[in-house]
Amino acid sequence: MTPAYVLCLAIVDWDWVPYMLMLAIVGEHLERTALVVLTVVFKWLLVGRVRPGLKAKHGNWSRMCHWVVETLLERDAFKEALEGFINTEVLRLVFVLLGATIGRRASMDMISCRTPDLLTIGDYMLFGSKVGIVCDDETRWKGVQMCRGANVLDNCVLCPGVTVGQRAILGTNTLAAPGQYFPPDTINTGNKGGQAVFLRKKGRGTPESVAMEADANRRLESPLVWTLFNVGLCLTALLEPVFRSVKTLPLMAAVLIAEDWQQGLVISVMSMLLEEFLEALLLFILKWCMIGRFRERSVPFFGIDHFLWMVWLMISCTFNHLDGFHGTALYSSFLRAMGAQVGRDCTLFGFTLEFDLLSIGDRVNVGLDCDNTCHTVENMILKMVPIRLGSYSTMQRHSFVMPGAELGEGAVLFEESQVLKGETVPPNEIWAGNPAEPTTIRRPRLWAVPPEESRGPSRR
Predict the structure, then answer these.
(1) What's the average model confidence in pLDDT over 94-98?
(2) Of 78, 110, 286, 412, which one has the fewest beta carbons inside 10 Å?
(3) What InterPro entries does the record point to (predicted)?
């Protein structure tokens, strides 16, 4: 929608700028609504209802129609149109219109599923972010079922024929193999040999967690609380284009200030250089004004603290975190300003959300696409717990250190690995896998060599 914002500034007087900007924002929402509606309409016109069975019964025309609909559902534009409405009835309604069977009070996230007709979601189901659900293989379509009260958390992948029992939990990065069944009240995670790993049966929990879960369930059953929570999140989602319009500031400045095209070009380039810093500044201001300092605690769902955390999640995902400066000392300084404890000479990439709960020692390396978010969700309770990365430790690309976990001094976590909640990787050890386990490799303490020896013999 950048051209719309710029055009409205170029063709009107200054007095009309606020109204035209508002019109551009409304137009962006209309565009997103039209995209979602047309996707639903084309799904039913081209494919209709998809039922379990063999694909061989369908000819080339039918397969092409399926490909078109699957492409529409996987488009970034479709997902971006709905991402602001996570945990609301709006997102649930869209998937119901696409053919999914969804129970009441399900906490929906923006899942990826190319055949929603084969998706059955029970009452009080809870999703994490970036969940992928596959309901077909090369030969047939198979349904995926998640029963009442089940939890499927961040980055899980569910293959055809999977059944998740009542109140069962699939932890972060779980791979549910084709046809795998998860019994009720079990906790499972990761991927070993193509199968999710069973951790344990769910216990009753501490009296405090039981009381919080009961409190969250009472709010969940309250029509007033449920309605207010949904209305608040929907209004926040409607404001999302206002935050995103910051990205159009370089062109806006060029149109408003420049007297000719040469000036416009110079102003645009200069503004583009400052854009990331402006986004980081806004993120800094909003974090400290709206949230303050994150602290270790548990928060029941559907209260004011949960609502503010959801708003912060949307804002944090909208703005850049100095993305162009990851790996530099400038990004380390940004993390410190946001509340994280960061040591000297670090090379940091990855993503974090609860900055104040992240502690990083000296000369730490965090690779691309690593996840250091300091929260987890279980049974309608948001738990915020610190993460500690010891000095000289390393997280390789797309690895995860879960809340409450710690990397000791000099520890290494290989790529695509995950340290579970509450675990500690001992100093100088190298762990790998999902869930991560010790390897036979030991890391030499290179940093312990005196500087004089590390330089070798002098040459004269």
Answers:
(1) 95
(2) 286
(3) Trimer_LpxA-like_sf
pTM: 0.86
**Exposure letters 3-33 (e unless 16+ CB within 10 A, then b):** ebbbebbeeeeeeeeeebbeebbeebbeebe
Residue-wise pLDDT tens digits, 332-369 = 999 999 999 999 999 999 889 999 999 999 999 999 99
Helix, strand, coil content of the chain in percent (nearest 5): 45, 20, 35
**Nearest-10 Cα torsion for 384, 381, 130, 388:** 20
Helix (H) or strand (E) holding 406: strand 406-407
Q: What is the DSSP letter of 291?
A: I
8 Å CB contact between 413 and 394: yes
Q: Which residues of 442-452 are buried (b: 16+ CB within 10 A; e: fewer)?
A: eeeeeeeeeee
**β-bridge partners, 442:** 429
Judge whether 171 and 151 are in contact, CB under 8 Å.
no
| Tens-digit pLDDT profile for residues 376-393 | 988 889 999 999 999 999
Query: Stretch 327-331: mean pLDDT, rounded?
Result: 93
Q: Which two tokens stand for residue 312?
A: 């912060």
Q: Which two tokens stand for residue 213?
A: 């879960």
